[in-house]
Amino acid sequence: MVIATVACLTAGASPHPGLTRATACCAEIVAAPHDPASPSALRFVGTGPDASMAASARAVARDVHFALPVGAASEKVNELTPAVKLYNEGEYETAIPILWRIFQADRSNQDARSFLLRSYYNEGIGQLQNGLYPKAIESFGEVLAIDPQDVDSIRHKKFAERYLKGDLDLLGRIYVRHIQQRP
Q1: Which pLDDT score is estimated for 52?
Q2: Contacts of 180 (CB under 8 A, 6+ apart)
């Protein structure tokens, strides 16, 4: 039975002057078969990042205090994955309802918030570039409802309101052509 995992970093000579070479190694403290509470052996796992990662993964799996938060984070990632896929494909209108549901369920979920803001923003940029000013005003308004300090959204919303009633002049056409979506 493994009681603990120990990772260490050793320093040695390096071919580069003034630097040392660091080597990661990993070992596990193993309990004696007759008394699981007493450590009786140190089992060497290996050196390098692969050995350290493998041992760390085993340690995480055994640590209940760490495994529960990791499990909760994994669930959040799984829930967000379809919306992120839609976002990456430029399907903002489809991603927004999924992101809203996730964000309303957990207002502290910064990933859902970030993707929601960027989805509304990018949707608004596309609407501006296509001359859909009322929809752009609405999209940037949604961004500002979540983040009132978003300077770009404030500026783009004012632009859409300015040109709502008329055609773009040369400056407006140049502005719309060169605005960028957020990655």
Answers
A1: 54
A2: 125
DSSP assignments along 97-111, one per residue? HHHHHHHHH-TT-HH
**One-letter amino acid of 171:** L
pTM greater than 0.70: no
- Tens digit of pLDDT for each residue in 127-168? 999 999 999 999 999 999 999 999 999 999 999 999 988 777
DSSP state letters, 111-145:
HHHHHHHHHHHHHHHHHHHTT-HHHHHHHHHHHHH
Strand 35-47 with 20-32, pairing: antiparallel
Percent of the chain as helix, strand, coil, to the nearest 5: 60, 20, 20
Q: How much is the average pLDDT of 58-67?
A: 66
Domain annotation for the chain: domains and CATH numbers: 2-62 (no CATH), 74-178 (1.25.40.10)
3-state secondary structure (DSSP) of residue 26: strand
